[in-house]
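Researcher: I'd like a candidate sequence for this fold, 437 residues long. If you have to choose between options at a position, lean toward the conservative one.
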């Protein structure tokens, strides 16, 4: 992409809209713009990051055996009356009336919709186990939307739903997601800790929130040092259920809990091995048994011929929140430092003298050759001061920057800077090509 033909609305000054670094940087780097309170437009650069994150989430859901579908954003109140949640959900639900005076809502989550769909799609034990997922916009009329996309009212979520014949099978579906989530966050360069969360009315131990540590996170967590960022563990194969079960049993033996789930006596026993921190909830997995299948009449034929209500679970990843969380975890004074896997472009080319013919020729050629090789490149070909270009490139945080100017053209070497380490190298044109292709 040539910057001279792109839409990248950078801000020179801090915005009074934002109180935390990630929100400030998302506005300054032109990733998002607020359209109404808690409702954001994803500008071109931001959309690329959102898509990268969703792509990783999809790959890991697919790897774990989940099947993608797409449910609508607007849902009929009818379904929520069936489950009994229409009244219970409260003012976070955006309620809408259509022209026929029918009650609709903008979905805050989709248990009711997926259960109603499976009512007519699943008939027997042979149709189980299955896990379906979708990546779709949700709406929750948060009382205090804040921190930009981290607590929006409209936000993008991956929500998955599992259907199993019995509790043992439901646990396997749950454990697969536990592992898939750890792999998902690790691929984004995040250290996420699965902490025991409130399992709700069915009890048991099948609910975990995935928390990324951050000073301005809204969740308090308490965890054993086995969950420190430098504590190493190897993830099992995504579908090897016995390896997965052993892994989850081992990892969950190390204490980690939300505020509501603290076990003070266990913390006292573990004493100085316990850490206390704040963090951002980037995912939540949950088993709720037959709550929706029973109330909404989803039944399948069991092996013995009788009818049975499937055990269900749901599994959410806050995709749009992750954009903020990743920036919160990875930035410096100059701007964002994208991990390669989610960077909007991998390489930025800066032509420091756009009106110098020789420089422009080399920069154009490098841009074309890398782009043709499938490398995502943002090429700053604008006629602007070098200093402003360097600052803009640091702000938007692409992993690699190539600087091209008359001196380099003369010498035949060009500067390559790594955004994360700040390390600079001088490479020949061919070495540059070889580095990225
Ligand atoms: P929170 O505690 O932050 O309000 P939640 O527990 O209400 O989140 P869940 O119902 O567990 O959220 O939804 C699954 C995931 O969706 C969350 O883990 C979070 O990453 C994301 N999410 C929830 N609410 C928002 C929001 N208002 N803006 C952005 N992402 C959100
Ligand atoms: Mg909430
Ligand atoms: Mg929560
Ligand atoms: Mg939650």
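Model: Candidate sequence:
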């Amino acid at each position: 992409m040539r910057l001279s033909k792109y839409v990248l609305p950078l801000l020179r000054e801090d915005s009074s809209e934002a109180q935390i670094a990630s929100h400030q940087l998302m506005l300054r780097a032109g990733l998002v713009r607020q359209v109404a309170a808690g409702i954001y437009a994803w500008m071109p650069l931001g959309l690329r990051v959102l898509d990268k994150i969703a792509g990783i989430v999809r790959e890991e859901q697919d790897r774990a055996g989940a099947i993608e579908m797409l449910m609508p954003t607007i849902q009929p109140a009818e379904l929520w009356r069936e489950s009994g949640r229409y009244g219970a959900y409260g003012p976070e639900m955006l309620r809408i009336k259509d022209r026929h005076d029918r009650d609709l809502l903008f979905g805050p989550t989709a248990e009711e919709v997926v259960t109603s769909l499976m009512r007519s799609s699943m008939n027997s034990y042979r149709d189980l186990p299955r896990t379906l997922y979708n990546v779709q916009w949700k709406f929750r009329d948060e009382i205090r939307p804040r921190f930009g996309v981290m607590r929006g009212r409209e936000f993008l979520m991956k929500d998955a739903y599992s259907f199993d014949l019995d509790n043992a099978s439901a646990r396997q579906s749950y454990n697969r997601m536990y592992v898939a989530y750890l792999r998902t966050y690790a691929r984004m360069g995040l250290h996420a800790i699965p902490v025991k969360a409130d399992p709700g009315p069915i009890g048991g131990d099948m609910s975990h929130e995935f928390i990324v540590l951050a000073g301005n996170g809204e969740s308090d967590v308490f965890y054993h040092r086995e969950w420190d960022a430098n504590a190493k563990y190897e993830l099992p194969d995504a579908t090897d259920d016995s390896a997965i079960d052993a892994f989850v049993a081992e990892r969950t033996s190390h204490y980690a809990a939300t505020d509501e789930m603290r076990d003070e006596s266990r913390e006292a026993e573990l004493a100085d091995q316990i850490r206390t921190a704040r963090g951002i909830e980037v995912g939540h997995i949950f088993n709720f048994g037959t709550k929706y299948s029973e109330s909404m009449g989803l039944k399948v034929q069991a092996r013995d011929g009788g009818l049975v209500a499937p055990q269900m679970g749901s599994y959410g990843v806050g995709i749009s929140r992750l954009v903020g969380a990743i920036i919160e975890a990875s930035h410096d004074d100059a701007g964002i430092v994208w991990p390669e896997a989610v960077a909007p472009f991998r390489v930025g080319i800066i032509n420091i003298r756009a009106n110098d013919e020789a420089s422009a020729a080399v920069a154009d050629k490098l841009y074309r050759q890398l782009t043709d090789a499938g490398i995502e490149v943002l090429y700053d070909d604008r006629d602007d001061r070098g200093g402003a270009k360097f600052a803009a490139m640091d702000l938007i945080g692409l992993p690699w920057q190539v600087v091209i100017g008359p001196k380099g053209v003369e010498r035949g070497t060009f500067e390559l800077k790594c955004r994360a380490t700040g390390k600079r190298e001088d490479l020949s044109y061919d070495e540059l090509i070889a580095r990225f292709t």
